[in-house]
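Feature request, filed as a ticket because there's no other form

It would be nice if the structure record came with a short human-readable summary line next to the tokens. Right now we just get the raw output. Example of a typical job, pasted below so the devs can see what we mean:
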Amino acid sequence: MSDYSERRLVIACGGTGGHLFPGIAVAESWTKGGGEVVLLISEKEIDALAAEGYGHLRFEKMASIAMPKPLSPRMIPFLGRFAGSWFSCRRLLKSFRAEAVLGMGGFTSAAPLLAGKWRGLPTFIHESNAIPGRSNKLNAKFARTVLVGFEECARHFETGHPVEVVGTPVRPSVANRPSRDEAAKFFGVSPEKKTIMVMGGSQGARRLNELVAAGLSVFEKAGMQVVHISGPADYDTVSPAYQKHPGAGVVKDFCAEIQYAYAAADLAICRSGASTLTELAFYELPSILIPYPFAADDHQTRNAEIFSVPGAAVLWKQEELHEGNFSRRIVELLSDDNRIASMNGAMEKLAIPDASAQVCEVIVNQIREGN
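Raw output as currently delivered:
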């Protein structure tokens, strides 16, 4: 562990779990090394939920809105709020005596990065996905160095930007792996049954949640059970199905202790956000990846291909799935022990367990060079 004593880092990571959780992971590594950190998050409910349990870290909420199209009438209020965020970030960087700024993606990162560049600080962005989003392509203009989770992503940034492949950080709470028995007890399910973990994600997973709820009777008849994290928006829609089939498993709207879901599972079904894929690799968990079909530049499909091509996961297109084939295909896959074992081995090879430390090393080295 490197020494970051008295080093001060600001991490902008709000908007989605895919930005916030890796940001928290970096913050944990930074503070463990003796440094100080402020995490800037959005005003969304998902940010507040995800930040629970990290009372030892300092979070600051920052107003932000998605950037509209250039000729949209919404551009004027956007610019006004952006200017307000920029001035707020300038004050925070000065009062905190920040030495570097890291943006984890999304437009929440833009104002802090610009403020950091204006103050002459080392600035960084981290892109977890295989294809960078519109926001990070903009954020890169304010960054000295681009950090990426996948090597495939590096070519999407302009030449002249230093790019380093560091992986995507995994939260220490996730890295602290519980036993299968502990995980089963946490959810009140059997440690003996084959278990399917379903994670709807923080947004855009209603169809996935509906398909799982419709297949509960099939899973129950096959002697399998489901640990289902639906997301708050869909919980009331899917929970009646679990009340009807109590032997099929359990559903929760949100699970801050997601490590228990990973540890309980034999197979995961989820979207293919980069942060989720990183955690699946850490747990060597075979997966069915169903990319969010409306993701920008279809980046979730590109993410999924990085895992499906070497056989660590299977990629299913949402439009090809329906109540008649979804649960049957899952049961067939989970019943094939040899294939599950092969997927497990392939998933292990994709893990980068020390990504947080790599991110911190890049940042602290540039701080030292500046001094």
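Something like this underneath would help us a lot:
The chain has a mean pLDDT of 91.
Residues 130 and 163 are 14 Å apart (CA to CA).
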